[in-house]
Amino acid sequence: MEGETVEVAGLKFTPYLSQSQIASRVGRVAAEIRSYYAGQELPILLCMLNGAFVFAADLLRALQMEVEIEFIRYSSYQGTASCGEVSEILGLRQPLRGKRVLVVEDIVDSGLTMARLMQELERQGAKEVRIAAMFTKPEAFRGNYTVHHVGEELPNRFVVGYGLDYNGLGRGLPELYIRTE
Ligand code: 5GP
Q1: For the domain that residue 131 is a member of, what is the CATH number?
Q2: Is residue 16 domain-resident?
Q3: Residue 9 falls inside a structural domain
Q4: 151 touches ligand 1 (CB under 6 Å)
Q5: Digit-coded pLDDT (tens) for 127-149
Q6: Nearest-CA neighbor of 65 among 94, 93, 41, 98?
Q7: CB 109 near ligand 1, within 6 Å
Q8: What tens digit of pLDDT does each residue of 139-176 get?
Q9: Which GO terms describe its molecular function (predicted)?
Q10: What's the domain range around 111?
């Protein structure tokens, strides 16, 4: 329930962003993206599974642009700590050579996962790669690239809800929760 502490897979979490706060972030990000691509060739959206499916669904509807969306998988997380290793990208069903791509990510933490994905998209010959991330953790970020569209910058703490899980659970929480200290 909104405003209350929750327990997910044995860990306690405190409310951090409400549904309406999240909706206003998504609306702002959608407006930024619309204005960037206005009058230009539109990108293919690449939704990073699993976590970004909730953000991607909201963003796609808020965008009101005629765009295609693909779902890919690329994961580096186990439990509450990034293990620093990323595996291969799965699920891409069309060649990206010469295309503009907008990666839709739930959260950019250390940025390693996204760095590997960008390398791969460049290798595949994408013409332009931009990133929309619902959340970032600037204190943890170790990348040397720009996250172009950001919903909310978070402190360097573990969060669940709005598509993000802890050990597979908590993705369906409509608000964002932060681990209780
Ligand atoms: P990175 O490679 O940037 O360190 O990690 C990116 C991935 O780790 C994200 O796509 C997300 O799946 C996961 N992740 C990073 N921070 C959090 C967090 O606070 N909560 C959850 N549930 N997942 C996170």
Answers
A1: 3.40.50.2020
A2: no
A3: no
A4: no
A5: 999 999 999 999 999 999 999 99
A6: 41
A7: yes
A8: 999 999 999 999 999 999 999 999 999 999 999 999 99
A9: hypoxanthine phosphoribosyltransferase activity; magnesium ion binding
A10: 22-179
